[in-house]
Structures are given as C-alpha cells and as structure tokens.
Fold this sequence. Notes:
Distance between the termini: 133 Å
Number of helices: 11
Shape: flat
Strand order of the largest sheet: 13-14-15-19-18-17-16
Order of helices and strands: HEEEEEEEEEEHHHHHHHHEEEEEHEEEEH
Structural class: alpha+beta
Number of strands: 19
Strand content: 25-35%
Mean pLDDT: 75
Low-confidence stretches: 1-16, 18-36, 414-423, 501-506
Largest sheet: 7 strands, antiparallel
Amino acid sequence: MMNRNWQPSNGKSAFTRMCGFWIVFFFLFSTYSFAQKVTAVVDSTAIKIGEEIKLSISVEADSTASVVFPQEKNLFLPLELLEAYNVDTLKKDAKYNLTRMYGLTQFDSGKYFIPKQKILINEKPYFTDSIRIAVADVPVDTLKQKMFEIKPLVSVEKGSSNWWKWFLVILVLVAAFGAYFYFFVFQLKAKKKKKKKKEIPPYDRALLQLNELDNSTLLLKSEYKDYYSELTNIVRQYIEEEVHIDALESTTEELIRKIEAQKQAGYLDLKDETIKNLKNVLQTADLVKFAKSKPDDAVVKADRNLVEYIVVETKEAIPEISEEERIKDEAYKLRLIEEQRKKTRFRNAAIGIVAMIIVFGGLIGYATLSYVKENTYIGHSITDLVDGEWVPSEYGVSGFTISTPKVLKRISPIKKSDSIKSPVNSEIFQYQSYLAPFAITLETLTFTEKIEITADQITEQILKQYEQAGTTDIVVKYDEYESPRGIKGLKMYGSATFNDVQNPLGTTQRRAYEVYIFEEGIGVQILRMMYAENDEEGKKIVDRILNSITQIEEQK
C-alpha cells in the first residue's frame, strides 16, 4: 500500500542538493590547489654509495607570504644532509616560486625513503610527499684488480728531539708571568689601595669608613654580625691609632679598663658618658656576634650614631702633643713601616725560592724519570713501546738486523755450557721493562769453525737455564718458523711462571715466552721475548719485531 504522507521533491530540496554539490566541488578544488603549493623532486632515485642526490623543494606563494624551509640535519634521516643550498626565487605573475635544494647521500646500500618535509607558509604547515631512493654497492672486480707486493721496512735514523727544551722555556715563562701577575697586579694593587687609605688621617678615615658602611648592603641582607664587626673595628682601630692602646686585640672589658687608665693618667680627657656609650655599643656587638642576637633597626641606627659621636669626642679629648713627642711618634711609625717592608721582602723571597724549588724539582724529577726509563731500570709502559719511535740495529758479524722499541743494551755474556764448547764469541743484548711488562734478549754465538750442533740442543740448554733460575710450570711447544722475509728457523714458545729475577714485573706471575733460533754459517742467533700472558699489545710488539728481521748474510 502506498504511503499517503509521501510527497515528491520540491524546489527547496533541489536547491539543497545543488549547494551540496558546489560545496564538495569547492572542497576538492581547494584540496587540489593546496596540493600544488608545495612540491618535492629529486634528480635521481637510484645512486651509488656515497653519491650525492639533490632534493628540490618548491613553494608557490604570494610575495607577502612568510616561507620557512627545513633547517635541521636530522629531518632527512635515514639519509645524511651534505649541504643545504641557498633559496632560489623566481617571480611568476603576481606570485613567487621559491625553490631550495638539499644535497643528500647514504653510505650503506639498500632502499630508503626521504621522509615528508614540513614547510611553514605564514606559520601554517604544509608537507611534501616521501620519495623512495635506491642505494647500490660499488662493484669491485678483485680478479682484475692489480695487487702489489708489501713494501719492505726502511731504516730511519732516530732524530734528536729538543721538545724538553721548549717545555722548559714555556714552563719558566708561565711561572714568571704567574709570579709577575700575582705580585705586581694583585699584591701591589691591594697594597697601594691600602696604603693610600692609610695615608688619610685616622679621624677622617674613621668618618669615611662609617659612610662606606652606610652605603653597604649588610643591613638590607640582615647580616647584623658582619655589620657590627665592621662598626666596632672602625672605632677600635681609631682608638688604637689615636690613643695608642691595643684596642683591636682586646676584649670589651679590657678595652674599657685601658681607656679609663688613660683618663686617670691624664692622657685622655674623655667624658664618663662617652666611655659608657662605647661600652654599651661593644656589648651589643658581642651579643650579635657571639649570641646571634638580632637588634631592632632603631638600636642599630642609634649604635651607628653613637660610634660617630665617640670618634668625635675622642678626637677632642686627646691633648695636643709637643713637637718632640710628634717627632718620636713619626720615627716610631717609620720604624714600623721599615719592619713591615722587611717582612714583605722576606715573604716574597721565600715564595720565589719555593717556586724555583718546585719548578726545578719538577724538571729534575722528570729528567730523572726519563733517565731511569732510558737506562731500563724501570722501563717503559706498553703504550710507550707500541707508539714510540723504533730503532733498527745490526748484530753479529753476518748482518742480523732487527727493529726494536728501544735500543738493546749490551750485557755480559753468560757462562758457556758444557754442551756448547766451540763458541769463541758470545754477545748478549737485552732490554726489559718493569712497567710493560716486556723483555727481549738477543744472543749471537759465533764459532771458529763449522761444528755439528742442532737447534734441539740449544732449546734443551735454554730449558735447563729456565729451570736452574727457578722457573716453574713450564709449558713448551715447538714449531718450524719462517719469517715474512723467508728466514727459516726453529720456534720454541709457551708459558711459564718466572721468578722475581726473570719476571719484568718483579713478581712471580705467569708470562708468555717465545724463542727463535736462526742458524747462519758459522754462528747462531737466539732471539728471546717475554710478555704478559694474553697481552695483545705485547703480542703486537713481538710480531712487529719478527717482521723487521732482515736476510742473514752468510759469512764468506
């Protein structure tokens, strides 16, 4: 059955549908216009590792618009920003086309996306599209790549270094400048200021100090203790200088007794009321300083005025002195000034001597430490041995040459064993460090004639020497050895617990050892090295020494 309430669409409904159509059309059109304001393009979407790709961001805006491009480097991750170029402006009709280019790269192969970038136009954010970038490896043909032989080591003479002289000069200059700055800038400036203030008569200086105290911020900060300390010091110092009694170091009761004694002796015509006021001010100051009392502002102001009144009354109460007494007083002051100068000169001289002792003591200590290191009493650290300048040296009559971290020192030859009776010449060169620890020994044996002696006999003799010296828990391995330069020999290596004499650290700890035996014509070269077990740096030193061994020339 048909609904009777149904009615066909009227004109108002058609108008509504028309308005809705235009609203949707306007929205889509505005969205399309919005999408065209900001664009981002790249010059290539596929690059090689490390190759630069340029990203261009263009903005179309009015001439009055404020445009802000991306600035931070991390905005382009995972790609790295190499350079952000200047903005290029192009006028088009009534609008401007702003373009900024960015240089990007990536050092790992793979596929990446340049993230969306935010551009602010009149503080309103607009975003670009993300762009996919492919980064490819650089192909390397190892079959066609030409290989080169390892270059041999080149012997270089050890140059003399004068760095310590420059260090000494700089140290002396710094010490001299510091001494000058301390004595002539700080000390003399403070002394001149203090001296200039002392040249003012005591009465005028006391009034000046009271005015300075009024201008201070001690009361504003409620620092009553410091305020009363300054206030009482002013009046005490004035009384000490004018009345000539020990006021600064006296207690309140002692000072009042001294003033009363001066009055009774007739040297000071001071009123009893003034003495009483002074006593009250000093007692109030004692309560503030030692009992942490906090007086009222009215009391503080009254005490300040009383101090000024006491200073004025004391000046008027001091009798006039004769010319003779004035001369004596001046002589006394000059004597005090001279004594003070002597103390100052003595103190400055003592400081200078101590500074010189410190400087030269440091230099002597450094030179002594360097001497001890160079003469292998304590040796060098493992870092010094690795990073230091190595020394190539030639040993034996056949030109056996190796490079070592430090020069090997000639020591007395050991006693020849019974199994090796033919050597007529035995030379031992050694270096050991108690700091590393590391030790190297090179023994050259030269025979008068060709004899039948094997490397096995030598290794057995070396093991006997270790055992006789107290070495325990010896682990021994044997292997044939050929150096990088083609020198063949026998290698004996392992680990052992060496005693205090053999161990570079001076303690019985396990050490790794390596012994290399090279036969040459009528002689034998025995190279021994010892370092801390599992020490990678020590192993590097051993490998570097072995790589430096040059071809042994047979004696004609």
